[in-house]
Write a structure and sequence with these properties.
CATH class of the largest domain: Mainly Beta
Distance between the termini: 69 Å
Number of domains: 2
Helix content: 10-25%
CATH superfamily of the largest domain: RlpA-like domain
Strand order of the largest sheet: 1-5-2-4-3-6
Strand content: 25-35%
Number of helices: 2
Radius of gyration: 24 Å
Number of strands: 6
């Protein structure tokens, strides 16, 4: 029977084989780990060159509570989070409702909205802070935080 060798330099020690196998198993297991949202890095400010935008805000229906967002986090209707089409995940944005002046700061953790004219989808808590739960949609100004 032939014994395994490293580049033809002689038999491989069983201890080296066990170590290599353990390392491969560890790498495989870590590569299979699911995302739970904790990997998202908090950002202190919006990307340079983005100075805000104006449009309509809407908020998530309750049926999305507990579902995965595009960032891998679980949507929490009680958190101050939002969806934006292009801002990086973790970006903090000040949202000001134009007709009553109320404002809140949210963290982007999802993609959307996908309705023309809408610039942001807010969590239920953020919508409540803007006093827009009754209307469902409100005109807002987004600005860097």
């Amino acid at each position: 029977m032939l014994s395994p060798t490293v580049f033809g330099a002689g038999p491989i020690a069983p201890r080296v084989l066990r170590g290599a196998l353990a390392l491969l198993i560890l790498l495989f297991i870590s590569g299979c780990a699911g995302r739970d949202g904790r990997e998202v890095v908090e950002r202190a400010s919006a990307p340079s060159g983005w100075h805000g935008e104006r449009g309509q805000a809407s908020f998530y229906a309750d049926r999305y509570h507990g579902r995965r967002t595009a960032s891998g986090e679980t949507h929490d209707r009680n958190a101050l989070t939002a969806a934006h089409r292009s801002l990086p995940f973790g970006t903090r944005v000040r949202v000001t409702r134009l007709d009553n002046g109320r404002e809140t700061v949210v963290r982007i953790n999802d993609r959307g909205p996908f309705v023309r004219g809408r610039v942001i989808d807010l969590s239920r808590r953020a919508a409540a802070e803007l006093d827009m739960l009754g209307q469902g949609v409100a005109e807002v100004q987004l600005s860097p935080e």
